[in-house]
């Protein structure tokens, strides 16, 4: 699957998702796009969007989106790394239009 990492998503996560094509918003030249504009652009080229924006659901209308969205609970790579199996499983299970918010118990 082709996945776009949002601005706050830790880049080292891409190593754990080696079975997928990962591109960051910055690499794509979309560093200045925010909120709905970024989601609309991502939906044209990607199957999934991984973000750490905990307010995304409240800020955007996500109805009728084909883009699968995974929200991570933190930008901290060490914390994400401790739960990497859950993150990878969530990514591998994503289907078009899914909206999944992970939470970690530390």
User: Approximately how much beta-strand content do the residues carry?
Assistant: 15-25%
- Radius of gyration over alpha carbons? 13 Å
Strand order of the largest sheet: 2-1-3-4-5
Helix content: 25-40%
Structural class: alpha/beta
What is the residue-mean pLDDT, rounded to a whole number?
A: 91
Q: Which residues form runs of ≥5 with pLDDT under 50?
A: none
Biggest pleated-sheet summary: 5 strands, parallel
Q: How would the global form be characterised?
A: globular
Number of helices in the DSSP assignment: 6
Order of helices and strands: EHEHHEHEHHE
Measured distance between first and last alpha carbons: 29 Å
Please provide the count of β strands: 5
Tell me about this structure:
With 106 residues, this protein is an alpha/beta fold. It is built from six helices and five strands. The protein has helices spanning 13-16, 25-28, 35-45, 56-59, 77-82, 84-93; strands at 2-5, 21-24, 48-51, 68-71, 99-101. A five-stranded parallel sheet has the order 2-1-3-4-5. The protein starts with a strand and ends in a 5-residue tail after the last strand. The mean pLDDT is 91.
């Amino acid at each position: 699957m082709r996945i776009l990492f949002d601005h706050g998503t830790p880049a080292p996560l891409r190593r754990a998702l080696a079975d997928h094509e990962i591109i960051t918003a910055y690499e794509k030249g979309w560093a200045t796009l925010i909120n709905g504009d970024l989601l609309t652009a991502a939906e044209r080229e990607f199957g999934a969007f991984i973000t750490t924006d905990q307010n995304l659901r409240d800020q955007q209308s996500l109805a009728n989106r084909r883009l699968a969205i995974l929200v991570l609970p933190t930008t901290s790579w060490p914390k994400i790394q401790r739960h990497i199996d859950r993150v990878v499983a969530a990514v591998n299970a994503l289907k078009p239009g899914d909206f999944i918010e992970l939470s970690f118990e530390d």
